[in-house]
Amino acid sequence: MNSLGFSKLPKDTRVVVAMSGGVDSSVVASLLHEEGYDVVGVTLQLYDHGLALEKKGACCAGQDIYDAQMVAQARGFPHYVLNYENKFSDAVMEDFADSYLKGETPIPCVRCNQSVKFRDLLAVARDLNADCMATGHYIRRVVNPVTGKAELHRAVDTGKDQSYFLFATTQDQLDYLRFPLGGWGKDVTRQHAERLGLITAAKPDSQDICFVPNGDYAKVVKRMRPESVRPGEIVHVDGRVLGRHDGVVGYTVGQRKGIGVGGGHTENNAPLYVVKVDAEKAQVVVGPREALACDIVSLKDCNWLMDSDQTSVTVKLRSVSQPIPATLDRANNRLLLSVPQFGVSPGQAAVCYGGDRVLGGGWIAGTAQSSLPQAAE
Fold it and tell me: 74: which of 132, 265, 274, 368 is 20 to 30 A away, CA to CA?
C-alpha cells in the first residue's frame, strides 16, 4: 500500500494536483513527485489578469499561474492551465453578488470548492485517468478501519484548519481526494519548500477573497449589480427610522462600525448593531446587542458525511469561531444551540463536528430566538 492508499507502486499511481500558485499546493505536488508518483499539475485560471493585478496574493490568476508553472518546470512534472473564467463567474461570482442582494453574507471560497474545484476540476482529473486528486488544503482524510469509508477530519494544526470551507465535500469526492498537508503545520510546509528550492517558499498567504481587490467587496458587487445601489432606511428594531443608507450591500448582520447612524438614539448612548438586512424592503434594521442573540439556526442545501442520526454535535457558525455544543435536528434542517450566539448571518455556513470529524453542514437560511435566559459572550 503506497502513501496515497493504493496497492501499487508510486510510479504506477497518477495523481492530479490542484495548484493555485501558492506554497501549499506547490509543496504537495513537489513532494509527491519526489516520492515517485506520476504527478500532473493543473491550475485553473478563474478570472481576468487585470483584476488579479489589483490584488497581490490572489490565487489562480496572473502571477500565481506563472509561479505554478515555474514550480512544475523546476521539479520536472507536467503542468496545465485550464481557463475556467466562465465557470467561475457563473458558479461563484454571480452567486456572490446575488447573495449580497438578498441581504446575506456569502462565503465564495466554499462555493468555489463545492463547484469549480471539487466538481469540475475533479472531473478533469478523472478524464486524465488519475487515481486521485490532491490539494494543499489543511484538513485530514481518515479511512475508518471499521467501515472502510473515508472521513473528513480537522487538521492537526487547528490554526490552519480549513475544514469549515470544505463541509460541502461529498462522500464520492472525498473517496477520490487526498490532503497530504493535514497532518502538519505551515512551518513544516515552508521548511519543505525551502529544502526543495521552490519559488513559492516565502510567498505570503492570501488573506481575502481572491476576486475582491483590497477587500472592498461592496465595490465588486456594485460593479456586477448596479441595481444594488438602492437607497433605503435604517430602522431601529422598535420601529424608529434613524437614518438612510445607499444600499444594503454595505451591511452585514452583527456589524457595529460604519452603520451611518450617529449617537443619541439609545439610552446611555449604547452602541447599535445590524440585526437584520431586509433586501426586499431596502431596510437595514439595527438594535442593541441583545437583539442579535439566537439559539435556533435554520439550514438549507445541507451536505452530510455521516450515516447515523447523530444529534449531539459541535458547530462552527463562522470560519473564525470555535465550535460550540448544539443539537442537530436533521429532520427539520435546524440546529438548537446550547448557548445563544450573536451575529449569526444568513449566507454563512454552519459546519457540524463529532470531535475532530466533519459530519457535514449547511448554509444558514435564518435564525430565531426561543427562550434566552443568558447570552453568549
Answer: 132
**DSSP 8-state symbol, 292:** G
Q: Are 203 and 22 in contact (CB under 8 A)?
A: yes
Q: Which residues are catalytic?
A: 112, 210
Instruction: Tell whether 279 and 302 lie within a shared domain.
Output: no
Do residues 30 and 149 share a domain? yes
Contact criterion met (CB below 8 Å) for 301 and 110: no
Question: What's 355's DSSP letter?
Answer: T
In a domain, 377, yes or no: no
- What residues have CB less than 8 Å from 77, skipping those under 6 apart? 29, 33, 39, 40, 41
Which pLDDT tens digits describe the chain residue by residue (377 residues)?
999 999 999 999 999 999 999 999 999 999 999 999 999 999 988 765 444 434 444 455 688 999 999 999 999 999 999 998 888 888 888 999 889 888 888 888 898 888 888 888 999 999 999 999 999 999 999 999 999 999 999 999 999 999 999 999 999 999 999 999 999 999 999 999 999 999 999 998 876 677 776 777 778 888 888 877 889 999 999 999 999 998 888 899 999 998 988 776 776 778 899 999 998 899 999 999 999 999 999 999 999 999 878 899 999 999 989 999 999 999 999 999 999 999 899 999 999 999 999 999 999 999 998 865 444 43
In a domain, 71, yes or no: yes
Q: How far apart are CA 183 and CA 221, in angstroms?
A: 37
Provide the grid cell at 140: 485530514
Q: What is the 3-state secondary structure (H, E, C) of 164-224?
A: HHHCCCCHHHHHHEECCCCCCCHHHHHHHHHHHCCCCCCCCCCCCCCCCHHHCHHHHHHHH
CB burial string 158-171: b at 16+ within 10 A, e below? eebbbbbbbbbbeb
User: Looking at the structure, do residues 257 and 115 belong to the same domain, yes or no?
Assistant: no
Domain range for residue 284?
Answer: 230-291
131 and 260 both lie in a single domain: no
Q: How many domains does the chain have?
A: 3
CA dihedral over 170, 176, 177, 183, signed as positive or negative: positive
> Would 336 be classed as within a structural domain?
yes
Q: Distance between CA atoms of 270 and 99, rounded to whole angstroms?
A: 30
